[in-house]
Design a protein that fits this description.
Elements (H helix, E strand, L loop, with lengths): L2 H33 L17 H10 L2 H5 L6 E6 L3 E5 L11 H14 L13 H4 L4 H13 L11 E2 L1 H8 L28 H8 L3 H4 L33 H10 L15 H4 L4 H13 L12
Antiparallel strand pairs: 1-2, 2-3
The protein binds heme C (2 copies).
């Protein structure tokens, strides 16, 4: 090879290597700014009232906490896909002698209402944008329930973002992944949920559905869940939604995972096992609210 060309190629590859290094550094710095953002949340709280534990047990089951934190709440590896990310639902049980009930209550409030940890950093994947609607009373009940559970001696690895996950985050491809970015941190939690059995209670409880079924409840492709995820169904009273369903159909679908036509609702993407553990009165309220929503014509199911 001509020595000039060789020199040229060499300097060319140095330029490529340098640009790559700069791109990697930029992705790292831009993602780090969001992952380490300090939300400066401050919520000192009293220890939770133990009498609320039964209410908390019901909430923990029906709001799907166990899906990501483990059936015994001792923590769970939810996703292990480096170089994308490793996502681990934290061990939510308390180690005797090592945990302070007031601080644990605060940890729950920060995580559920703000989507941040004790250092006010954003939590990864924890769906706090939906849980931020829980009332202060409900958060206290959840905290009381977990405080009363036996400690599970298990230390799952910490959640971490890999280079691919960081690149997707910076590229705007991980919508809703950092709930803290979507939450209004100036707004405190409402004190208590509206009375059970009302449309208002249904609206309160149905906020849990909006992360997937969208805030208009008309459904569509989900921003998370990967390419194999089915679109979230249209839940409005339109014929393309739940128009033909009765309340009995709805409650049966949530309890059994079957649509009125006998087909299966995909439990890998629709948490019907959790939602189905809500009480009759809760499901009745959610149904009332879904029925009161404006009908939206949007076909989401590919197979009928
Ligand atoms: C879709 C999965 C998912 C669901 C559902 C979920 N969590 Fe989480 N949660 C996570 C992940 C993942 C983390 C850890 C995030 C991290 O380390 O950045 C987390 C973190 C937390 C933390 C913060 C712990 C800490 O170290 O500060 C609390 C508290 C918590 N979750 C409580 C709950 C409760 C209560 C529920 C149910 C109402 C719930 N979570 C439902 C995935 C989930
Ligand atoms: C984590 C995402 C997620 C959440 C949260 C969620 N859903 Fe779903 N839901 C789905 C997906 C995806 C489907 C479609 C499943 C399929 O095609 O098999 C679905 C399907 C359904 C169906 C079946 C309708 C049909 O025609 O197929 C009903 C009813 C339903 N969801 C109600 C709810 C309610 C009520 C809530 C809140 C209390 C809720 N979902 C919360 C993702 C979710």
């Amino acid at each position: 090879m001509h020595p000039g060309l060789k020199r040229y190629l060499k300097s060319f590859s140095i330029v490529i290597a340098a640009s790559l290094a700069i791109a990697v550094l930029a992705v790292y710095l831009l993602s780090q700014r969001r992952l380490r953002h300090d939300y400066e949340v401050s919520v000192p709280l009293a220890p939770p009232r133990a009498a609320l534990a039964a209410e908390g047990a019901q909430l923990a089951r029906s709001r799907g906490c166990a899906d990501c934190h483990g059936q015994d709440f001792g923590g769970k590896l939810v996703l292990d896909k480096m170089p994308f990310a490793r996502l681990v639902g934290t061990n939510l049980t308390h180690e005797p002698g090592k945990s302070n009930p007031a601080r644990e209550h605060e940890r729950f409030y920060r995580a559920l209402h703000h989507g941040v940890d004790m250092q006010s950093r954003p939590l990864l994947m924890m769906p706090s944008a939906e849980f931020t609607h829980l009332s202060a009373h409900e958060i206290e009940a959840l905290s009381a329930y977990l405080a009363g559970l036996p400690y599970v001696r298990r230390t799952p690895p910490a959640s971490a973002m890999g280079p691919l996950g960081r690149a997707l985050l910076v590229g705007g491809k991980l919508q809703g992944f950092l709930s803290a970015e979507a939450i209004d941190h100036a707004r405190p939690a409402v004190a208590a949920a509206p009375p059970l059995g009302t449309i208002a209670y249904g609206e309160h409880a149905a906020q849990l559905c909006t992360g997937c079924h969208r805030s208009d409840f008309g459904g569509g492709p989900m921003s998370h869940g990967g390419p194999s995820a089915p679109p979230a169904a249209n839940l409005t009273p339109d014929a393309s939604g739940l128009g033909a369903w009765s309340e009995v159909d709805f409650v049966a679908a949530m309890r059994t995972g079957k649509r009125p036509d006998g087909s299966d609702i995909d439990s890998a993407f629709m948490p019907w096992r959790a939602v189905g553990q809500a009480s009759d009165q809760e499901l009745h309220s959610i149904w009332l609210y879904l029925r009161a929503r404006p009908a939206i014509a949007r076909t989401t199911r590919t197979v009928q």
